[in-house]
Amino acid sequence: MKKICFFSFLILFTLFSPIVYAQNLEWIQGNIYYTTRPIICSLYYTEPSCEAVGCCWCTSGATAGCQVCPCPTPYQPPPGGGPGGAFITPEEEEEGIGVLPSLLLSTNTIEVWLYPGEYQVVSLGITNYQDDRTTIQMSAEGDIWPYTLFEKDKFNVDPGETYYANIKFFTLPTTLPGVYNGRITIKSGNITKMVAVILRVEYEAEKLLDIKVDPITKNVYPGNNLKYLVTLYNLGLTKRVDIFINYTIRSVENDTVIARTGETVAIETSLSFDRSILIPNDTEPGIYIIEAIAMYKDKEEEKRASAVESFNVVKPFWLVPWLWAIFTNWITWIILFILIPGLYLIKKLYEKTRLKKVYRARYVRPVDLKKLPKKGLLVGRISETKVNAYIDPNDLMTHLIVAGGTGSGKSVASMVIAEELLKRGVPVIVFDPTAQWTGFIRPCTDKRMLNIYNKFGIKGEEARAFKGTIIQVTDPFMKVEIEKFIKKGEITVFVLNKLTPEQLDYFVRKTIDYMFTISWSESTKLKVLMVYDEVHRLLPKYVKRKVSALEGGGYLALERAVREFRKWGIGLIMISQVLLDFKGAIRAVIATEAQMRTKYAGDINRIKTKYGWQYSTSIPKLEVGAGLIQNPAYNNGKPWFISFRPLLHDTFRISDEELEKYETYKKEIEELRKEIEALKKKKIDTYDIELEINLAEEKTKIGQLRMAETYIESVRSRIETAKKRK
């Protein structure tokens, strides 16, 4: 396919390169290039009075006995000093069509801007291509005649040489503002050349608005667009103002308008923009001008500024129509453009179909399943497949960030990982500002979860509770000895919903600091998992003051923890709504990221920059409980998607009333254990009582509070009986 495209491009380049080359030479050399010099009748003004046959003007109509342009008339200098409507025509037809000109001018249009009392000197290059020395005679005609001086109006130019004639344009202090049109006539024997001149005179004090127009394409074919650059300057206004701009394209030779358009723009100080306007197909070659007039009203007074610039309309090179005839022939299309475009369209159609599937798909395919974890914690399935998804528990020693919007399933994903670890006997300690994790001590009763058990091959009877200890923290200064809560297969939830953000920040920092006071043994396997939910609450924007005389610093403590906990076999899961909440120092240390559904542009752009647009477009479309997982050790460093399984424990938190009862039973059990210890010291048999108090504690840990209450009452009664028996 690539070779076919290459050879086709080579054929087209070989055919079209002479055209481009010839067009670049059209104004310079060669008697094989076809150009047409239109005859000038009048620059800007309309017909004179028609008195006899032979009179002409530059309009589209004529009257009886009168002739339409071209038709030369003698020029008479106008009286007075202001701009007027002089009717100007050339003395003679230009020589030669299709041959090198005898005289070549450096420009065919001169535009001068002056204030009253100013002058400007312009150099005009005249090149003699004749075989003999020639004498040049220069003169000014039209409105510019009173304001034009020649350094030399008559001079000789040798063959092949270029003479630069200096022309001084000036104004008097009393010159009226306006546009003065005319031309410079250059004569050499029977050869006549003309340069159109536009002299603009303005009052400097009135120049509050200025406009400039510059054609980007100096040579334009009929039927093509003229591209031009417009620059506006607001020199005197301090407010934003709407300005209407009218663009007109007209012929220099006969003042015929060939195109016109307008627009309104808003400007404060300056504004620059490009526009384009279509040149009609029937436009004759020649010199044209684009005039831009800007207008606005200031206190009912109309202000305006204008700009004029010239460009050329040229005929295409003679080879272009010939090639056009070839390439519009059906035989040529069959030979050159059936196979290549067909293959190209098939390729494009395939790519378009593939991209549509990518845009519509929620998840990016393909995934190299051989390079994903094959054992470990069974957390769900690879999204849109029936392939089991695993997370290596030892990868949690390099920690995990879970981020996503509200309701995206970020807590569910973290809870699934915690459930799998508890089933393996790994302790889990949770710092929970929402009390959502208290549901672990009860089996799942949520029908939404139970209804999707079959999808993941889970039976309804597998719903279960997990042993746990729930501690309601109301005092941020409470001493927490973490090592006492590290119990095999049990979860400990510190409920922090009663703490203010400042107290929460301090409590987290204090517990992490305590971890560094323990003499942990180093481990290559995960020994305990610590979960910090709603980490964004630890950010400085939430923590605005100190707690008493002590500093907070919970987020900085977490940053230290992610660096040090790994060597002790302690894993961290940090949950937040926005992944970018975590500083680069934390993200650089954490190996595994889980991005759940979000509409936050910062996280979406980060994924787009890091992994590609295919992944970033999937993030807002993720199902609840599905997430993008990335660990550089898997899938060649690229992310993959996991649909996390439903929870086995209850999704609903324990109510405040139940939590209060839970705390009461827990304290009663502690008091009863002290009494049992006192009986044992008195040599009283407490074996049966200890069995019953253990049952009470077990029922409390799995949330069966009524049964726990029954056991507690029984233990209390037995202790009283044992005391009386003694």
Structure, briefly:
By secondary structure, this protein is of the alpha/beta class. The protein has 14 helices and 30 strands.
Question: Care to describe what's here?
Answer:
- By secondary structure, this protein is α/β, with parallel strands linked by helices.
- The protein has three domains: 56-313, Sandwich (Immunoglobulin-like); 369-644, Rossmann fold, CATH 3.40.50; 657-725.
- The chain is built from 14 helices and 30 strands.
- The strands form six sheets. It has an eleven-stranded mixed β-sheet with strand order 21-20-30-29-28-22-27-26-23-25-24. It has a five-stranded mixed β-sheet with strand order 4-11-10-6-8, with no helix packed on it.
- Strand 10 and strand 11 form a beta hairpin.
- The protein is elongated and about 145 Å long.
- The N and C termini lie far apart (101 Å).
